[in-house]
Amino acid sequence: MAANPMSQFDVYRIGPEIKVGAFDISFTNASLFMILSTVSILLIFNLGSKKNSILPNKIQLLAELSYTFVSKMISDTAGSKAKPYFAFIFSLFMFVLFCNMFGMIPYTFTVTSHIIVTFVLAAFIFIGVTVIGFIKHGFGYLKLFVPSGVPAVLLPLIVVIEIISYLSRPISLSVRLFANMMAGHTMMKVFGGFVISLGIVGGWLPLSFSVALTGLEILVAFLQAYVFAILTCIYLNDALNLHH
Amino acid sequence: MVKKIYFHSIFFSFLIIKEAFAAESGGMPQLNPEFWVSQIFWLILTFGIMYLVLSKLILPKISNNLESRKSQILENIEAAEKQREDSDAKLKEYDEIISKSKLEANSIFNQAREKALKDIGAKREVLDKQIDNEIAEAEKEIDVLRKNAPDKINKIAIETSSELLQKLIGAEVNNSSISAIVDDLSKRNGDKYYGN
C-alpha cells in the first residue's frame, strides 16, 4: 500500500456489502470520513451555539466567526437576495473544508479527492442555480448568454462561448477541487516515499519539503473550500441578479 | 523555490501516476466506478442530514445569538448615549448656575462698590463742608486780627516812642501828639504793609 502514491485514494469496503437493487451502497472508508466530517461539524457548531453569552467562549467564537465569515462572503458576492441559500452555502463550505482538513491527517482518506464526490456537489449546484435562474427570470434567464454591448457580428460567437462556459461550470468546479486535493496528497506521498528511499543520509531534504508542503496543503485545503463556496456564490449571483 | 519544487513534484507525481497506470489495472482509484454509487449515496445522506440539522437547528441559533448580542450591545450603547445626554444636560444646568451666580456676584460687588462710593462721597461732602467752615472761621479770625493789628501796632508804637523819647531826651511828651504822628505815619506806611 505504501509504495504507490495513488493507493491513498483507494476506496474499500468497511463491513458487509450492502446492495439496493443493482446498486452497491456499501459502507466504505469514504463514507466513514464523510460521516466523521459531518459529525464533527455538527458537534462543533452545536457546542458553539448552545450558550449565548455576551462574551463568547472559544468554541462559540469559532462558530460565530465562521457564520459571519460565510454570511459576509455571500452578501459581498451575491447580495442580500442570496440570504435563503445561506444555510446551503455554509454547509457546503464547511463540508468541503472539513473533508479537506481531515485529509491532512496522516493515514486518513480525503473525501474531496474523488472526482465523483466533487462532481455530484458541483452538478447539484449547477442544476440548482439553473433552476433558480429560470424560476426567478423565466426565459429571461437566457439573457445571461447574451452580454450587453457586444457588436451584432460577434454575437453568435459570444453566445456559443458563453453557453460553453456556462455548461463547463460544473466540470471546472469539480475538477478544480478534486485535482487540487489529489495532486497535493500525491505529492506529499511522493516526498514521503523519497524520505524512506533516501534514508537517514539524504532523507532530510525531502522531509523538510514534506513539512513545508504540509503547511501549503493546509492552506490549499482552506483555499479550495473557500473557492468552491465563493464560486457557488458567484453562480448564484448570476441566477439571482441577472445583469451581465 | 517552493513553487518550482511544487510543480516539479507534480510533474514527478504524474510520471509516477503513469507508472501506476501501467502497473495497476485500476490506475487512478478515482476513475474506478466500483464505489461511485456508494460514494454518491453516502454523500447525499451525510450532506443532506448535515444540511438539515445545520439549517433547521444550529444556524438559526447562531444567528439568534448574534442578533441578541447585537441588540444588547445596541441597547447598552443607547443607554450610554442617554446617560451621556443626561450628564450633558446636568453639565449645562451646572454651567448656567455658575454663570448666574457669577452675574449675581458681579452685581453684588457693583452694588457694594456704588454704596461705598456714595458713602465716601457723602463723607467727603461733610468733611468738605467742615473744612470750608473752618477755613471761613480762620479767615474771619485773620480778618479780625488784621483789622485789630494796626491799632495794636499804633498803640505799641505810641507807647514805645513815648518811652523812647522820655529816655532819650528826658522830657515827657504828650501822648496825644505822639499818637497823631504815629497815626499819620501808619496811614502813610499802612498801605505799604497791608496793601489792600
Question: Could you walk me through the main structural features you see in this protein, from its secondary elements to its overall organization?
Answer:
The complex is a heterodimer of chains A (244) and B (196). Chain A has a two-stranded antiparallel sheet. Chain A has seven helices and two strands, in the order ββααααααα. Chain A is an all-alpha fold and 244 residues long. In chain A, helix 1 (29-50) packs across helix 2 (58-78), helix 2 (58-78) crosses helix 7 and helix 3 runs antiparallel to helix 7 (204-240). The mean pLDDT of chain A is 90. By secondary structure, chain B is mainly alpha-helical. In chain B, helix 2 packs antiparallel against helix 3. Chain B is rod-shaped, with a radius of gyration of 66 Å. Residues 20-25 of chain B have low confidence and may be disordered. At the A-B interface, strand 2, helix 1, helix 2, helix 3 and helix 4 of A face helix 1 and helix 2 of B.
Keywords:
heterodimer; A: 244 residues; mainly alpha; two-stranded antiparallel sheet; 7 helices; globular; B: 196 residues; 3 helices; 89% helix; rod-shaped
